[in-house]
Each structure stands twice: as structure tokens, then as C-alpha cells.
Amino acid sequence: MRQRVAELVRRVAAGDAAKRENSRLRGLLGIHASLAGKWVGARVAGREFTQRYETVTINRGSRDGIEQDAAVIGTGGALVGRIIQVNLWTSTLQLITDPLSGVGARLADSRATGLVSGSGASSLRLNYISTRTEVAVGEAIVPSSEDGIYPADLEFGHVTDIAIGRPVPGKPRVPLMREETALFMVILLDQAIDVLRIENVLVQLP
Fold first, then answer.
1. Along the 206 residues of the chain, how does pLDDT read in single tens digits?
2. Quick one: which of 57, 82, 102, 112 is 20 to 30 A from 94 by CA?
3. Can you give the pTM of this predicted structure?
């Protein structure tokens, strides 16, 4: 009797897990239908998070048409990262939160361009936006597409905090005195998706 109950509990748990995965896959398929180009679904098979790296392994490789620098997205069409290593059966995905990651980005409203970089701990920062640029909390951040990797219709997230960056020395006005001016803002983003919890993704094919 106990064995039968345990088996029923196991089946119910397996069924619930399958329903959750099907729900995620349906979300990705809905996005897939609206995207330009060719994409293939993949599942996260491993994770590596250290002080210097934030990468995951997916169960798709060169046999599936995956190539290096391919863009990877998650549920909702949010940008997850890019492929940095391809094997026959698997590939390594560098997350956008990786401290070594840097992606050309654009403010959706002002169209000013900068660089989104990871700072670990599942956070993103938009760098090199001039202090003269008008930026609003809630403004969307999208890829600039100048690197040829990420389609412009994807999204990083939205502006959550704006601060003035570190001042830099200006031109001397009088001997032994000079004005210091901040050239860039420090802009923090909330991610469109929690990349540290992803399970299924779409990978762009050539």
C-alpha cells in the first residue's frame, strides 16, 4: 500500500513538472512565431557561476546548427546572452549578467547608445550615456544591433535608477585650479527576465 501511494505521489509530481515545462515551452513557441529568422529551442543542462564567470550549458550543439556568437533569448523575448563555445552536442552560453559581458545598447526613447555590462548578482548596468541625455526611470533598453549579434527587437529591461558618474578633470581656467565635470551617467536596469533561473531558451540560427 505504501509503495502504491509513493508511486502515485511520484506520478503526480512528474505530471506537475511536465505541465510547468510545457507552459514554458508554449511561451517560447509563441515568441518563436513572431521572430524574424530561424531559431531553435534548447534546455539548460548545466550552470557555472563564479566571481568572474556566469555561463550555462545548453543541450544543443553544432549538430543542431548552433554557431558561436548566436543570440539567445528566453520567455517574453528577453535577451539572455550569446553562445561563446560550441561542441557537437552542447554549447556554452554567456549570460548578459556575466561581468565579462558587454553588449551595445540603445535607450528606446532618446535613441542614445551605450554599453550594457553585467556586474554579477543578476544585475545590469548601462554605461557611457552622456549626462546631457534625457533619461527616465522605466525607459526600455534595447540592443543597438551594431555588433551584428543581437536583433533590435529584443529587450534588456528597463531603467530603475539614474546617477551621475564619477567626475573627470576639466580644462584649467586659472593656474592651479580646474573644473571637474561628470561626462557619463550610471544607469541601472531591471532585467526583463531572471537569467539565473532560466530553464528553456531559444537560440538564433544562421
1. 556 645 544 554 444 444 455 455 555 655 655 667 788 889 999 888 776 678 899 999 999 999 999 999 887 778 899 999 999 999 999 998 888 888 899 998 989 999 998 876 567 899 999 888 889 999 999 888 877 788 877 888 899 988 876 666 555 544 444 445 668 888 998 887 888 788 889 899 98
2. 112
3. 0.74
